Amino acid sequence: MACFRHKEITQHISQRSAQGDHSTYIAAAIELIVLAGDLLDDIVDQDRLKDDAITVHTAIGFLLLGQQAMAHSHIVDGKKLKALSYVTSCLLQSVHGQQTDVACDVQTEAGYLKMVEKKSGSLVEMACVIGALLAGKEDIAAIETYARYICYYPI
Fold it and tell me: Which end of the chain is more exposed for a tag (fewer CB within 10 A), N or C?
């Protein structure tokens, strides 16, 4: 990860989007954002990483690159703005869940499930809903509901 190549990744994703392959482009953007969350979670959980500084910078780069990839996609601006706002909302929920986990602020099974729903479920929800939003779907409640609960079942 030390050889993070922002320019090359952005160029590759932009070329795919310009060719009309929006689904791959957006999927790559979402994957970068989720990977950033995974890396940051590893740091917070003190998993065995060789260099926390490189990992933090890589995670921040992935997070920003994912958002930039969505912002630069060749999709109607109104849909794009709605999707970016949704991504931000889901990331904030995930951060709240992570903070609850780190603070050991879970006292009950219901509290634990709520923490998991925020920490992980919000990211799954983000991945599921973004495609619908970018396709112009307005009623996303059912997608949000099933996506939020996928995190309870290991894959």
Answer: C
